[in-house]
Each structure stands twice: as C-alpha cells, then as structure tokens.
Design a protein that fits this description.
Radius of gyration: 22 Å
Protein name: Knr4/Smi1-like domain-containing protein
Keywords: TPR repeat
Largest sheet: 5 strands, antiparallel
Number of strands: 7
CATH class of the largest domain: Alpha Beta
Order of helices and strands: HHHHHHHHHHHHEEEHEEEEH
Helix content: 40-55%
Length: 304
C-alpha cells in the first residue's frame, strides 16, 4: 500500500521533471509491492524519459485494472504514438475518448494520427511509381488496392522503383538473392504499408495465433526503414540479436518479433521460406509460408 508521503514525493518529482528519480524510487520497491498507482507513476515517468517500450511493459502489468480507466488508455496511446505504432495508438485513444468523451489532449492525438495516416491520391506523392507494372498487378485481385498509401507510409517506407543496378548492389550487401516475386512487387511499389497485415499461422486455433506486420521493407538505402537503410535488415539482426538465417523483410508492430526470409534450406541463391522470429520467445522460429508470394497472398485484413 503506497503511503501519502510517497505519493506526495512522486507528485513533487513529476512537477520538477525529475523522471529518473521517480523511476529509481519506484524500482527500489519490490515488484510484488507495487500497486496500480505506483506502476502508473512508473510508466508515466518512463514515457517522459522517451523509454516508451518499457513504459508499455509496465502499463501492461496493470492492464486488467486499467481496462475502464481512460487515463491508462491515454498513456498507452501516447507511448504507442511516439513509437509510431499508429494503429495501436488510435485504438487506445479511441477507448479513452469513449470512457471520457471530449478530452482535448485525446482528441488532439487522434487528429494528429488522422493527419499522418490519411490516404491521398497517388499523384499527390513525390515518389513516381511504375505505371505499366501497376496496371499489370491491378488485374490480379490479390493486389488490387494492396497498399495503404498514406502520407506516413510515403514518408517512412515508399521509394522510387529500384533499378537493376540498385537491386544488384542491395543483394550483394545482404549476401542473399531476393525472391523474384518480391523484386517484381518492389518494381511496382517499392516498400510500404499493406492494407492486409495479418498472417494466420498454420494450424491456428484462435485469432491470437497469427502474425501481424506493420510494413514491408523496400529495396534500397534511401529510407532508414528499407532493406539496407540505417534501420534495415542488418541493423535489426545485429541489434536485436536475431539469428543469421536471412533477411528481415517485414516490420512488426511489436518490438518482440520480425518476419524474415529464411535461406537455411534453400541456400543464398534459392527461394527462401518466410518465417516469424519471436524475440521474447527465445527467438523461436515459426514457419509462415514456403515462399514470399504465398506469404503476401495469405495476408488478411484485421477484424475490428
């Protein structure tokens, strides 16, 4: 049970922007003795320190108690927002708005998310896509309206179609030959956020047994979130401790896993399988599809 003196101290530290001291103070208390209020203070302090992933971890500990608390959902939404996980942020802010309608801060974040994710006509964006291949892909029902072309997607992921020289240099840097179908897709629309982002795991017994992606990385170096960008495949593997089995091809909303092209069976020049690697599950590798085309065609829309 938290004392009034401790609560007063935490409030005073918050007013003085002493967030590190808040974290240190609460972390000295055994985890089993931290209640809803203490963990809420801890999560808020971590967010103020821009340690958003750690903040979410703390908030999730009290998720059951926070279910009907608009402030809990607001704080979750804020952390997701600054992690650029806009779907998750919008969900939490919408719940907060339902529980406490009209809160100005909540409405402001929802407006910012709408501005970042609003779709615009293709001609309004600076990236020139490949019109001939777009027409070809448009005849395939699986790829009609495949991409969610928001301002955010074009800012972070979408690049001009790769030249053959760029494709060759990226493959040399990765030391893997990319799947032909993936290259064809990227020549149409080089990276981005698909409308369908859920891939059910074979043999799944519930909706929870599925992998969610947030984006498909494009071929290039121009965008940080591209195959050879600053935050691309090599960066994710080396900094996340992922196994050296191939290429990170898709980002996931959660920092606890990625979707990779797995070349262990095919060799560097073969047709790789598509797998999910779960960081928080001892880097468990789960096979999703025998090739990239089947993975893309198997993506489904999230059921809201």
């Amino acid at each position: 049970m938290m004392s009034d003196d401790l609560l007063a101290k935490l409030d005073a530290l918050h007013e003085e922007d002493e967030y590190e001291e808040i974290v240190d103070t609460i972390m000295e208390i055994p985890a089993e003795d931290r209640d809803y209020v203490l963990i809420s203070h801890l999560g808020r302090a971590l967010s103020n320190l821009e340690r958003y992933e750690e903040a979410i971890e703390q908030f999730l500990i009290i998720a059951a108690e926070g279910e009907d608390d608009p402030l809990w959902h607001y704080r979750m939404g804020l952390a997701y927002y600054y992690l650029e996980q806009y779907d998750n942020a919008q969900r939490e802010f919408n719940i907060a708005d339902t529980l406490e309608p009209g809160d100005e801060d909540t409405l402001e974040f929802l407006e910012w998310i709408r501005n970042k994710t609003v779709q615009k006509p293709i001609e309004d964006f600076p990236v020139e896509l490949n019109p001939e291949l777009i027409t070809k892909f448009a005849t395939d029902s699986d790829f009609a309206n495949f991409w969610e072309d928001s301002e955010y997607a074009f800012e972070k992921y979408v690049m001009a179609p790769p030249t053959d020289d760029l494709i060759d240099s990226v493959q040399q840097e990765l030391v893997f030959v990319l799947p032909a179908f993936y290259i064809q897709m990227m020549k149409v629309h080089n990276g981005g956020i698909p409308h369908n982002r859920i891939f059910p795991i074979v043999g799944a017994t519930s909706e929870a047994d599925a992998v969610t992606i947030s984006a498909i990385l494009g071929i290039g170096r121009e965008k940080r979130n591209s195959l050879c960008g600053d935050l691309g495949s090599r960066h994710v593997i080396e900094n996340g401790g992922y196994p050296e089995i191939g290429v990170v091809i898709c980002e996931c909303p959660s920092e606890s896993g990625v979707v990779m092209l797995d070349y262990r069976s095919s060799g560097n020049d073969g047709e790789p399988e598509v797998v999910h690697v779960g960081k928080e599950n001892h880097y468990k590798i789960t096979m999703l599809a025998p090739n990239f085309e089947m993975f893309v065609r198997g993506l489904e829309k999230e059921v809201v």
